[in-house]
Amino acid sequence: MIDTPYTLDHYVGQTEFPEYSILTKNLLPCCFKCNQQKNETWRSNNVKTFLNFYDDRFLQYPFLIADMQFIRNIAILSFTLIQPAEINNLQFALINRHFSALGLLEKYNKKSNNRLSSEIKTIQYMMGDGWIDADIRAQLLARYNGFSIQYGPNYWECHIYKALADHLTEIRLL
Q1: What is the three-class DSSP state of 27?
Q2: pTM, whole model, 2 decimals?
Q3: Angle at CA 53, nearest 5°, toward 115 and 23?
Q4: Is 73 exposed, middle or buried (0-12, 13-18, 19+ CB in 10 A)?
Q5: What three-state secondary structure class fits 167?
Q6: 57 with 48: CB under 8 angstroms?
Q7: Are 77 and 85 spatial neighbours (Cβ–Cβ below 8 Å)?
Q8: Tens of pLDDT, residues 46-57
Q9: N or C: which end of the chain has fewer CB within 10 A?
Q10: Alpha helices (H) in 3-155, listed in sequence order
Q11: How confident is the model at residue 135 (pLDDT cuts 50, 70, 90)?
C-alpha cells in the first residue's frame, strides 16, 4: 500500500495455475510497481515468498514500526520489522521475505520523509498558534488510530503519526 493499487495481482501465477486466474481470492489489489516486481513469483523452493492478505491470519498483529531520529535538526524516519509474541518464527520469516522481495522498508523510508517534512511544518504552525503538546499529540494519535483502523496496524503511513506524537519535544526544539 505504498501507492494506489491500480492493478490486481494474481497471487499464484496464471501460467502455473490458469484455473485460478479469475478466482477472487487469488486477485489481490496491488500497485503497478509491486505487481511488476512480484511477477508470477509467489514461492521459492516451495516456500511462500509473499504475504496473502486474504489468507494470512496474523496480519492483524503489529510488526512494522517507525523510529525517528534527528540529525543536524533534520528528522529522519526509518522503518523496521519487529516480531510480536503473537507471530511465530515461520510467519515472521514470511513477513521478512515479503518485505525484502519488494524492497518495502526502503520504499517506506523514502516516501515517508517527504510526508514527514510537511507534517512537521504543520506541527510547528500549531505550536506557533499556542497549541499545547497534549492537544497536538491527541491529534496525531487520532490520525494514527484512524489509519490503523482503516488499513491495519502495519500500514506505513499510520506510523508516521505515531513517531511524530512520540517526538514532540524534539520537534519543538527545531
Answers
A1: strand
A2: 0.87
A3: 130
A4: exposed
A5: coil
A6: no
A7: no
A8: 899 999 888 899
A9: C
A10: 32-38, 89-102, 104-128, 133-151
A11: very high
